UniProtKB/TrEMBL annotation:
Belongs to the CDC6/cdc18 family. The keyword Endoplasmic reticulum does not apply. SMART domains: AAA. It comes from Halorubrum rubrum. SUPFAM superfamilies: P-loop containing nucleoside triphosphate hydrolases. GO terms for molecular function: ATP binding. This is Cdc6/Cdc18 family protein. The lineage of its organism: Archaea, Methanobacteriati, Methanobacteriota, Stenosarchaea group, Halobacteria. InterPro entries: AAA+_ATPase, AAA_22, Cdc6_lid, ORC1/CDC6, Orc1/Cdc6_arc, P-loop_NTPase.
DNA sequence: GGTCCACCGGAAAACTCGGGCC
DNA sequence: GGCCCGAGTTTTCCGGTGGACC
């Protein structure tokens, strides 16, 4: 049933993209100076999850590299590499310059100096989920690195620009902003059609069922492809010749919770405990939350650390909160 | 309006951990 | 093995905020 599982994976970069011509063209124009060996101005791609920001950034840079120029490029997920050190390390790794760098004993300044000394073809760095960067001043330092082009990706424009200082703000005001909207239902259906053609045997799903998947995904391509993947697996596991409607309906909640679970899995034990308590209660006050947290773990952290964990959970959209001071309530989002 | 209290979050200090060096 | 260094994490301190109460 599945002929090529890769095309159903979220990280798959297709050889052609649909419904993002304007965005691809704008980004291509921004990157045009690279064809002359000159670095390009930064670009800022923003919009909700599953709207193709990362895919388009990688696709456009890859196409540029294939078609015309000698360009180095590196993708950095700032969710995982959120510290200044980790981000710099990954960027240096993209130009094979980390051989004698030790994660615990090399000063951060050494990493930046080494990046500044880089002499090679233009270097494009995609900073995905850039709002997760702990130290936004790194963007200013990267901006000053000769031959380095930054593509910044985030969900909300304000989450990035609210936290950066005036030096960088004044420079980034000239950055090209590319907004990504949710896909329409028909756009998602076309995207799914391609994935079916590339990765599944013919005639196992009809247009009506693809429309159903698109409707369930509510404009999010990542969810749509996830539903298709899980439905295909389920049908294959049950030796079915096609993907029936009830299987699609069955895998929708599973797919959505699967995506959320990927976030939860990245939490530390203490963060998971806090998340579990809030989920168990639905809503809970800070003191009651801390009391139960102390009961559930053997080595409880201080209230201040717990507050840091909670703000992280909130930032990941795993929990919500209401009220600012005394009447504060934490609540589960599912 | 004044006071108390619970809570938040920034800043800085303290601590932990891992690697290099002698 | 002991010391030093640096990154990351946690703790401490403290000012600010807003609701409750008098």
């Amino acid at each position: 049933m599945i002929t090529d599982a890769r095309v159903l994976q979220p990280e798959f970069i297709p050889s052609e993209v649909k419904h993002r011509d304007a965005e691809v063209n704008t980004l291509s124009s921004v990157l045009r100076p690279l064809t002359d060996g000159v670095r390009a101005d930064p670009a800022f791609l923003y919009g909700p999850s599953g709207t193709g920001k990362t895919c388009i950034a990688q696709f456009t840079v890859e196409r540029l590299r294939q078609e015309v120029v000698d360009v180095n490029y590196q993708y950095v997920n700032c969710w995982e590499d959120y510290s200044r050190f980790k981000t710099l390390y990954t960027i240096l790794d993209g130009i094979n310059n980390t051989i004698d760098i030790h994660r615990q004993s090399t000063p951060k300044d050494v990493l930046l100096d080494r990046l500044k000394d880089y002499t090679g073809p233009p270097y494009v760095v995609i900073l995905d989920e850039v709002d997760q960067l702990q130290d936004k001043s790194l963007l200013y330092d990267l901006y000053r690195v000769k031959d380095l082009t930054m593509l910044l990706i985030a969900n909300k424009e304000t989450e990035v620009f609210a936290e950066i200082d005036d030096r960088l703000t004044s420079r980034l005001t000239t950055a090209t902003r590319i907004h990504f909207d949710h896909y329409s239902r028909s756009e998602l259906t076309t995207i799914l059609n391609d994935r079916v053609q590339w990765g599944l045997v013919p005639n196992i799903i009809d247009q009506e069922r693809l429309n159903l998947i698109a409707a369930k995904a509510a404009g999010d391509a990542r969810i749509a492809i996830g539903i298709l993947r899980n439905a295909a697996r389920h049908a294959h596991g049950n030796s079915l010749d096609e993907i029936p409607t009830d299987v699609i309906r069955d895998v929708v909640p599973e797919t959505k919770s699967e995506i959320q679970q990927q976030t939860i899995d990245r939490l530390t034990d203490h963060q998971q405990t806090l998340y579990d308590i809030i989920t168990d209660h639905g809503t809970i006050e800070p003191q009651a939350l801390y009391d139960e947290y102390q009961e559930r773990v053997t080595d409880p952290k201080t209230k201040r650390t717990v507050r840091n964990h909670l703000s992280k959970l909130e930032h990941y959209n795993l929990i919500g909160s209401e009220g600012n001071t005394k009447g504060r309530i934490y609540r589960a989002l599912t």
